[in-house]
Amino acid sequence: MASITEARRLAREALVTCGFQGRHEDVLLVVSELVTNALVHGDGSPVLRVRGSADRVRIEVGDAGAGVPRTREPGPASGWGGCTSYGCCRPGGASHPRTPITWVAR
Prior knowledge:
The protein has helices at 4-18, 24-41, 81-88; strands at residues 47-52, 57-62, 90-95, 101-105. The protein is of the alpha+beta class.
């Protein structure tokens, strides 16, 4: 995936497909923030996975980088993306089975 626009379109389709009844704009904001972080700080093209049901959705963003994403102090130098994402969602995490994945749930 090469753009935030593409990520939002794919996420919107996934939300409709799974019948998610929550606030779609909140989910799309979080997708934008996580994909932006992967594009700016990650390695290679980000991979987005969105799955859910009527009352829950899980958003995963991964890339080909070797490191695990880390939380930074929000601010002008490091941005507000993580703060925004975790403010809209239940806390997720970061893992690195083969590729870094950041995930949150709504």
